[in-house]
Amino acid sequence: MERRDFLKSLLLSGLSLKLDPITYAKPATPELAVIEGEDPEAITREAIRALGGMNKFISRGDKVLIKPNIGWDRTPEMAACTNPQVVKALVEMAYQAGAKEVIVMDHTINQPKRCYIRSGIQEAAQQAGAKVLFTDEQRLKRMKLNGEWLKEWEVFQDFVEVDKLINVPIAKVHSLSRVTLGMKNWLGAIGGSRNRLHQKIDQAMVDLTAFFKPTLTVLDGYRILVRNGPQGGRTSDTKLMKTVVAGQDPVAVDAYGVTFFAYQPSELLFLKLAQQRGLGKFELEKVRIEKRKI
Fold first, then answer.
1. Which residue range(s) make up the domain with 45?
2. Does 30 fall in a domain?
3. Closest Cα to residue 251, out of 221, 227, 292, 284?
4. Total domains, the chain
5. Is residue 100 part of a domain?
6. Mind listing the pLDDT tens digit for each residue in 5-53?
7. Which residues in 94-125 are b (16+ Cβ under 10 Å) and which e?
8. Residue 268's pLDDT band (boundaries 50, 70, 90)?
9. pTM for this structure?
10. What is the CATH number of the domain that holds 246?
11. Is residue 16 part of a domain?
């Protein structure tokens, strides 16, 4: 190469280096958002923002069903039902993301009207614009679940006739499954003799989660039930954690919820079974977690 051509080539390569923009890799969106704070509504909103915002999960025109735990005739201070302010925040965010309708409902254990009112969820959800429904036995239909243990079961059609499902459990101890979190919350979407599921509760929880496929799981860990679960009855049975955990991976959300209690995720059979089924990860060291206090 002649000297003149060499200098020209060197000059052009230098210009190329100067003109090429410097790009920086964007930080990966967390798989789990763990937000702590004084206000249940504020930490719920911040958890969804950390995951990329509700628009990431809800599209304009979607019909959305939000499934809290409203199973018990208990006030929010008893931590037997999902915190009503967590539910309210999710309803409002779903509408802001463009949902055409948001339904809030659960198949309660105690008398439905008392559960809805005493939990504070009915009032909070309606204030946010949600359609609050009671389950109707006439809306039950036996469906193929295609589970490894549960092949068929009676399912309330409200839960399958929507575009998106948001599961909003509360973290509690449970006399049978040790803890009740997101995966067990799906028992409130079915009818039939639910006590029959107790013989293989871990397998039932996994089969139901695989069937319903929640778009998002938001675990209420603001005030949790640490004794006499699942219904408690005294404020002394509760513990303030002031935390919300949110994510698309229902297994990871439950795995984090387990750490609120005296357990490790590896001790819970339903988490191992769910991971084996490909429903998510319970090994939290393999999960991208954003954890902060506001």
1. 38-293
2. no
3. 284
4. 1
5. yes
6. 544 554 444 544 444 455 555 678 999 999 999 999 999 999 999 999 9
7. bbebebebbbbbbbbbbebeebbebbbbbebb
8. very high
9. 0.91
10. 3.40.50.11440
11. no
